Amino acid sequence: MLTKILSISGKPGLYKLISTGKNLSIVESLADGKRTPAYLQEKIVALSDVSIYTNDNDLPLKDVLTKIKEKEQGQRVSLSPKASNKEFFAFMQEVLPDYDKDRVYASDIKKLISWYNILIDSNIDFEKEENVESSEAAES
């Protein structure tokens, strides 16, 4: 499912891909359900293409989100967006102890928490839906 959940630079929140055309895509905001066009010149990234730097290699976002979900027991992260950088780094240390401290910034952690909360609020089970898609691909 994370392949159809998008982050668009310059637009807050996350979007679900509805359809694609020649020069644009139609996306739906996960926050309010409004559909808008997203043009090719905008930087659009599927969450399935995002990863977090670790000391060994990159860890896919899905795995990091799963670790957060385990830590928070399926609930929203209660850390305020206005928390200090020290609190964000402490949170990340709990979730992913081997994250690369030189390349992961507080703003990255803040965005990660924001995305996680949006996915939880939208009842998107990124673990289950990803498994369904991969098992369908295996059956084909």
How would you summarize what this structure contains?
With 140 residues, the chain is of the alpha+beta class.
Q: From the alpha-carbon coordinates, what is the Rg to the nearest angstrom? A: 16 Å
What's the rounded overall pLDDT mean?
Answer: 88
Shape: globular
Major sheet strand order: 4-3-2-1-5
Distance between the termini: 18 Å
The CATH class of the largest domain: Mainly Alpha
Topology:
Elements: E1 5-8, E2 15-20, E3 24-29, E4 35-39, E5 44-46, E6 51-53, E7 58-60, H1 61-72, H2 85-95, H3 106-121, H4 126-139
Antiparallel strand pairs: 1-2, 1-5, 2-3, 3-4, 6-7
Helix pairs in contact: 2-3
Structure description:
It is a single chain. This protein has 140 residues and is an alpha+beta fold. The chain has 2 domains: 43 residues, SH3 type barrels, CATH 2.30.30.730; 90 residues, Orthogonal Bundle (Arc Repressor Mutant, subunit A). 38% of the residues lie in helices and 21% in strands. The chain has 4 helices and 7 strands, in the order E-E-E-E-E-E-E-H-H-H-H. It has a 5-stranded antiparallel beta sheet with strand order 4-3-2-1-5, with no helix packed on it. Helix 2 crosses helix 3.
